[in-house]
Amino acid sequence: MRFEIGPVAAIVAVCAPLVSAAPPVHADHVVKPRAHKPNRSSYSFSSMTSTRYATPLPTSSPVTTYMPAASMKAIMPSGVKTTTWNKNEASASDWDNPYGQAEWNRRWATFMPNVSISTFSVTTTVQATPVPSSSLVMPPPAGFSYSDAPNAKDYTFPKDFIVGVASSAGQIEGAIQDEGRTPSVLDYFNFNAGQAPDYITDWNYYFYKQDIARIAAMGVPYYSFSISWTRILPFAGAGTPVNKEGIDHYNDLINTCLEYGVKPMVTIVHADEPYEFVMDGGNVTRSYLSTNSGAANGTFVDSFVYYSRILFAEFGDRVPIWITINEPYYESGNLEGMYNFLEAHTQVYDLYKSMGGKGMVSYKNADNFGVPLDPNNQEDVKATNRYQDYLLGIMSNPTWLGKDVPESVTSTCTNESRALSPETLARYKGKSDFYAVDPYTATFVFPPDDGIDACAKDPNHSLWPNCVNTTSISSNGWEIGFYSNSYPYLTPKYFRAFMNYIWDTYQPQAIMVSEFGFPVFAEAEAELASQLNDLPRSLYYEAFLTEILNCIHEDGINIIGAIGWSMLDNWEFGSFDEHYGMQVVNQTTQERYFKRSFFDFVDFFHSHGL
Ligand SMILES: *[C@@H]1O[C@H](CO)[C@@H](O)[C@H](O)[C@H]1NC(C)=O
Ligand SMILES: *[C@@H]1O[C@H](CO)[C@@H](O)[C@H](O)[C@H]1NC(C)=O
Ligand SMILES: *[C@@H]1O[C@H](CO)[C@@H](O)[C@H](O)[C@H]1NC(C)=O
Ligand SMILES: *[C@@H]1O[C@H](CO)[C@@H](O)[C@H](O)[C@H]1NC(C)=O
Ligand SMILES: *[C@@H]1O[C@H](CO)[C@@H](O)[C@H](O)[C@H]1NC(C)=O
Ligand SMILES: *[C@@H]1O[C@H](CO)[C@@H](O)[C@H](O)[C@H]1NC(C)=O
Ligand SMILES: *[C@@H]1O[C@H](CO)[C@@H](O)[C@H](O)[C@H]1NC(C)=O
Ligand SMILES: *[C@@H]1O[C@H](CO)[C@@H](O)[C@H](O)[C@H]1NC(C)=O
């Protein structure tokens, strides 16, 4: 049975009359003021800040092997060529080689003609310097507590709870043309006027060692990052040659994590699918579900499996957690793309397990919890379940329940829907070790003006195909939560409801909050010192983490981890103004600074048993 959202307990406002007949009485004011001390000299000032430093990780943690060496060898496809390409060989003419330097050059020339790609002054890997204790001083007390959950004060996280911070290659690496990389669909943002390009971003391609050292200095045990597909396979597809420099880069990144005692959680693709998959369609416009990143290309599944095979063969021994695909709904383009993601994910999951992989594998579900505008209105409830059917159900029905894609999807996107056979559904079922979800916020859902049915029949309808309308304003006029610089609102209670919805609807054995975070309003416009004292972000994390404890202890939901987005401010798909980071990055100097939220995030776990 599906979890239906029940009516929220009615809030009855009892308004006291503004003018009271009786004069105010203070009969109960019995507190006796203390006697004055003799004069000002007896007053002493105390410091509100402390020099309690962040606790770094132990660096000599034992390294577990997650895939046997023999499997890694066996998994490598035969006949794979490993080579290099160089952006400075503009006059190459090895056209007889379909994967040669000339073809590599052509990828850039046809994709970004006349574009001069800027770079940062540093162009080799920078060794980490120790993080000075002066940047690890705890911030002053925040002066608030998310305290309407009195029990949560005493609740603790399970000992093996996964605590981490996240990033993704396309949003932090920069160096887009260096060491063999070819264009990804994200590079399309570089063409649109008014949007910031991804040429430099956080220059993490060369600063990763320092970034890992900083995570370790703050005592964060997991780092969730993604690998850039076009750095590993510049020509993307099955059978194409491997880029040695890409492999070396991520090998060193993973080894650097281990050296600092940080466990790597690796996403195989996070929004930066190779341009190769849309090369002949020529354009990454929005398709009817979401951005078209090439998933619907007929070569996608085989290519993704081949790419994953190479990652497992190279890095499988050292990676405990693999995410196959980031938020498939938002990268699929259309239903065809979703079917490809389902198939690709399942094949990669099976491959990993067949090679004796001992780590965990999942994909990450899209963010945003839909709640009915009026929980007592069945049309709103229906619209809400439909909203969730699209965002979560297309992947989750087959993966978690062994059921076909929801009927609300197949009966609407008729031209691309296919009935998945019982054999296929049996093969898809259970192919995820935990339910990964990025529950940033919540939104109210209700039907279109002309109703769901009329919309579903009309592909020209502005809300087709999911055919639901959304708003952040509740039916009684209040905004859903404290606002930010973008779509996330601070909605901890809805977060808890979301965890319950997932637990009952898809019945996973475990849930991981694989991304959550808050872009503080107008943070980018503030002075550095003010950016660093990012109270709303701390409040967001404290509130959500408290609700995670409530989910675990009061609702009996097995939440196994919480990964904060993001490790640092980064390139938010065409903008540097959406600050989700727990560190500031100066875009001129590339210097990093810890924000207070980073300390508060880590401290919350320390004060709850970890
Ligand atoms: C303040 O009070 C103390 C204790 O009575 C006294 O010793 C001191 O002289 C006073 N200081 C001033 C500035 O009056
Ligand atoms: C690139 O520059 C050439 C020469 O200036 C020009 O002919 C061509 O139209 C430009 N291409 C684009 C896509 O702007
Ligand atoms: C699909 O991907 C292949 C590479 O795997 C590419 O050659 C082809 O052009 C792509 N199709 C379209 C329509 O872009
Ligand atoms: C992509 O297509 C859209 C809509 O057709 C068009 O406005 C845009 O200029 C195209 N972008 C590129 C890079 O070709
Ligand atoms: C299916 O229909 C939608 C809506 O008209 C359209 O955007 C899409 O391109 C169609 N898909 C195919 C494969 O024709
Ligand atoms: C969506 O809701 C808004 C009110 O919040 C309304 O103005 C608009 O017409 C609705 N759109 C559709 C297509 O129903
Ligand atoms: C959608 O709009 C197009 C272009 O205006 C039109 O040709 C087509 O008939 C419309 N389709 C439907 C189902 O109304
Ligand atoms: C970044 O660094 C430059 C050079 O030191 C400085 O002028 C600028 O104010 C800094 N930006 C911020 C936001 O602090």
TrEMBL record:
<dbReference type="GO" id="GO:0005975">
    <property type="term" value="P:carbohydrate metabolic process"/>
</dbReference>
<dbReference type="InterPro" id="IPR001360">
    <property type="entry name" value="Glyco_hydro_1"/>
</dbReference>
<feature type="signal peptide">
    <location>
        <begin position="1"/>
        <end position="21"/>
    </location>
</feature>
<dbReference type="GO" id="GO:0008422">
    <property type="term" value="F:beta-glucosidase activity"/>
</dbReference>
<dbReference type="Pfam" id="PF00232">
    <property type="entry name" value="Glyco_hydro_1"/>
</dbReference>
<keyword id="KW-0732">Signal</keyword>
<comment type="similarity">
    <text>Belongs to the glycosyl hydrolase 1 family.</text>
</comment>
<protein>
    <recommendedName>
        <fullName>Beta-glucosidase</fullName>
    </recommendedName>
</protein>
<dbReference type="InterPro" id="IPR017853">
    <property type="entry name" value="GH"/>
</dbReference>
